[in-house]
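Q: Sequence in, structure out?
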Amino acid sequence: MRRVLMILAAAALTTPLAAQSVDSLIAKYLQSTGGLARMAAVTTLRRTGKFTGGGGFEARVVQENKRPNAVREEFALQGMTGINAYNGTSGWKIQPWSGKKDAEAMGEEELHSILEDADFDGPLVNYRQKGNKVELVGMDQVDGTDVYKLKITLANGDTHIYYLDTDTCVPIQVDITRMIRGAEVNYTVILGDYKQVNGWYLPFSIETRAQGSPEGGKITYDRIEANVTIDDARFARPVSH
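A: Exactly. Output:
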């Protein structure tokens, strides 16, 4: 009898998780953040805010996204503006504080990062079409909040662990693992302060740090605008003089 009770108790503990499928969790996530139709109605996004890092370091940041997969990121400090951009086929950067005023091709790690930022809807939306694999790998807690853990393996081999609030299925943390020149690089991204933009709930607070590190950098957006006019030339690599 005791063995039967133990089996029943174990079944009771595992049933809530087993009853959840990857697609049902993603469907709840989409519903909580506004739905696919509202997402699809947004063709451009412009995020404006500030980056804060250790020692009081601060920079102004602007990120512009345009469907299907173009992105431009600007960060201004010390009177200079650096740029990272991807036009849908190739990534480039300008780093004026390194004494480089001309655009140059991105390195491997930078390209990995910009490709993720270029994914307009994120890796969970239409994940099969993007070549991503998603698995439900368990439950956990993040700062006292119960979460589902979804493991996403991107088409390029990078992995993300999404921690979805069990009430809303909205991600509150993402652990990212990338392979850069044969070495594993790990990051933790903390998402918060979700607000509605054109009917789509987006995080206005994004903190990134190396896994295991207590400190990192944080972007706080004061404004996110939808469907603003952004010329394709913004994403094209400028011709060097």
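Confidence is low (pLDDT under 50) at residues 2-16.
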